[in-house]
Design brief:
Layout lengths: L18 E4 L2 E3 L5 E5 L2 E3 L3 H4 L9 H8 L12 H6 L4 H14 L7 E7 L16 E8 L2 H11 L3 E5 L12 E7 L10 H11 E10 L6 H17 L22 H6 L6 E7 L3 H7 L4 H16 L1 H7 L2 E7 L2
Parallel strand pairs: 4-7, 5-6, 5-8, 6-7, 8-9
Antiparallel strand pairs: 1-2, 2-3, 3-4, 9-11, 10-11
The protein binds S-adenosylmethionine.
Length: 324
């Protein structure tokens, strides 16, 4: 019996090689059998596969992404995008630009790129991140998200329902990691373990790009003043918030830059900027015309020429970790 991806996968309990045991399971000698359903291998304990654990801080995350979050509505949008994103072209173009810019970190390529908390790979600009790799390993708690990712990537992907804090992946086995907007959704006291887990599976010479969220960044506040000035001078207005919009209450605990610095991690990191302002900022302040576009052109230039500063003081840093 040949092991399944022996250079990559391991039983999270025994550390042993995984073998296909019948049409629908893989297992290690002496370890439990993990079901394969619709091309997704489920490493979560049965009780956590669909539901979560009662009292788990991130239960709201499991509920949302197993149900509405990754369901496409009549408007063609995922529940997640409908809830959190400004759907105007101005905002979407800015997001596309920012996601594309981060993609340069993956140009070197390799065998495996891990997409930790991939969901359905919800933005098309995220897909080219794996172009220079043989396989993209999509890991998520949500089977819905993984099934949708499989429709996009097919055989170029490996789909694992697992918790980032306990990956069924060998030490030093992936060439690169993309982890976007996930770690601050993990219960606050477990986030350090999740960082360490990503570090564990990264190959020497590899790179991890972890998009995080700062709780009280100073730069959006300053940019808000510039937007206010433009409002006075040019009459620029944002878009009124839809009073009927149902914002799901999702667990969200971003730690501060000081918290990150204070951890005794076995690695150093640098900061790049994913985006210095979020969609709520764009919706509340910018009009979808020359005024909003000029404002965002300035923001893009700032991110390009001062990535470290923007990563430290903006809303969404990209934490860049290299394993030497
Ligand atoms: C905000 S979405 C981000 C999706 C995608 N990475 C992106 O950039 O749009 C967060 C995803 O992380 C997943 N997630 C949250 N906590 C996780 C955990 N502990 N282990 C694996 N996936 C997790 C959720 O199910 C959801 O699909």
């Amino acid at each position: 019996m040949n092991p399944t991806f022996p250079d990559l996968l391991q039983c999270p309990l025994t550390g042993g090689d995984l073998h296909v045991t019948d049409d629908s399971h893989i297992a290690a000698v002496g370890g439990p059998a993990y079901p394969m359903i619709d091309g997704v291998t489920c490493f979560l304990p049965e009780t956590l596969r669909v539901q979560g654990r009662e009292g788990d801080a991130s239960q709201s995350i499991r509920d949302f992404y197993q149900n509405d979050g990754w369901e496409v509505g009549e408007d063609g949008l995922y529940g997640d995008s409908r809830a959190f994103l400004d759907s105007r072209p101005l905002a979407r173009k800015f997001e596309d630009h920012c996601i594309d810019r981060i993609g340069r970190h993956f140009a070197k390529g390799g065998k495996y790129i891990l997409d930790a908390g991939s969901g359905p790979i919800p933005h098309k600009q995220l897909l080219p991140y794996s172009d220079a790799f043989e396989k993209r390993i999509c890991v998520d708690l949500s089977v819905q998200g993984l099934r949708a990712a499989r429709q996009k990537l097919g055989d170029r992907g490996i789909y694992l329902q697992a918790d980032i804090s306990r990956l069924p992946i060998r030490d030093n086995s992936v060439d690169a990691i993309t982890c976007n907007h996930v770690l601050y959704q993990i219960p606050e006291q477990m986030q350090k373990d999740a960082f360490l887990e990503l570090w564990r599976v990264l190959k020497p010479g590899g790179i991890a790009v972890i998009v995080y969220w700062w709780p009280t960044p100073s730069l959006p506040h300053r940019l808000g003043r510039v937007a206010k000035l433009m409002r006075t001078l040019t009459g620029m207005r944002g878009m009124p918030q839809n009073p009927d919009a149902a914002w799901p209450e999702l667990y969200h605990h971003p730690h501060s830059p000081d918290w990150l610095k204070a951890q005794d991690f076995p690695f150093a990191y640098k900061l790049d900027a994913m985006r210095v302002i979020n969609d709520a900022f764009i919706r509340d302040n910018l009009s979808d015309d020359w005024r909003g576009h000029s404002f965002l052109a300035g923001v893009k230039a700032l991110q390009r020429f001062a990535p470290g500063f923007c990563g430290r003081t903006g809303q969404m840093p990209a934490i860049i970790v290299r394993k030497e």
